[in-house]
Amino acid sequence: MNEKFLKTHKIKVPKKNETNHIWIDSKNEVLVFWRDNKLNIINSICPHMGAQLFYDQKEDLIKCPWHGLSAEPENCKTRHKRFKSFYKWKVIRVDNNYAFFTRS
Ligand code: FES
Question: Which of 14, 26, 31, 80 is disulfide-compatible with 18, CB 3.0–4.6 A?
Answer without folding.
Answer: 14
